[in-house]
Design goal:
- The chain is an alpha/beta fold.
- It has two domains: 119 residues, Response regulator (Rossmann fold); 70 residues, Orthogonal Bundle (Arc Repressor Mutant, subunit A).
- It is 50% helix and 11% strand.
- The protein contains eleven helices and five strands; from the N terminus they run βαβαβαβαβααααααα.
- α1 links the parallel β1 and β2.
């Protein structure tokens, strides 16, 4: 589903409010991003993804019938080689369902009152996998709802495959540092930081930085209440 050079990003917008869907469509299309389908509930979202194979799905959490959380789980577990990136839409940032969606594989979240510029930039960023959306808020979200999880034991064992530097990068990433901040903190180039992040994703079988943050807390690599990186 990766957009090729010269082709616009392809997006599905799923929200039970027609006004929200229309507004997002107008914003994205004005930025050269193609909205290939709209959906008003989770079942329609799943069908639209299977039909159109988008790059990104903007998914409302709270919809009638099948909600966005279950729709996200089904979309990301579908038997496709390259599932879309899913951005959750919510009306308030510290929403336990946003955390559950991230744990299920969503790549980040946006508040519905997002500015047009941020919306378009977020879609591009999350598709590239290069940045976690709203890292400071995401960190607070994870700290509020994440707890070390026995089911993460297998992943915890996989941490042994990481080098000391990769563990350091993972811990700092989980505290909300951007690539540029990681590079400055560790006195590395941004290219080297990206290489470390890519290796972490590959060794742990994770899709993106959002899942790295969740994994860092659930395995106990970073403890709840440990505070932001100084």
């Amino acid at each position: 589903m990766t957009a090729t050079t010269g082709q616009p990003l392809r997006v599905v917008v799923a929200d039970d409010q027609a006004l929200v869907r229309t507004g997002f469509r107008l914003i994205l299309e004005s930025e050269g991003i193609e909205v290939v389908a709209e959906a008003e509930d989770g079942e329609q979202a799943i069908a639209a993804v299977r039909r159109t194979r988008p790059d990104v799905v903007l998914m409302d959490i709270r919809m009638p019938g099948l909600d966005g959380l279950e729709a996200t789980r089904r979309i990301l577990s579908d038997t496709v080689d390259d599932p879309p990136r899913v951005i959750m839409l919510t009306t308030f940032d510290l929403d336990q369902y946003v955390y559950a969606a991230m744990a299920a594989g969503a790549s980040g979240f946006l508040l519905k009152d997002v500015t047009p510029e941020h919306l378009a930039a977020a879609v591009r960023l999350v598709r590239s996998g290069d940045a976690l959306l709203a890292p400071a808020i995401t960190r607070r979200l994870v700290e509020r709802f994440a707890r070390p999880d026995a089911s993460a034991a297998a992943l915890h064992r996989e941490l042994g495959a990481l080098t000391p530097r990769e563990l350091e990068v993972m811990g700092l990433l989980a505290r909300g540092l951007s690539n540029a901040e990681l590079a400055a903190r560790l006195q590395l180039s941004e290219a080297t930081v990206k290489t470390h992040v890519a290796r972490i994703l590959g060794k742990l079988g994770l899709r993106d930085r959002a899942q790295v943050v969740v994994a860092a807390y659930e395995t106990g690599l970073v403890s709840v209440g440990s505070g932001p990186a100084a």
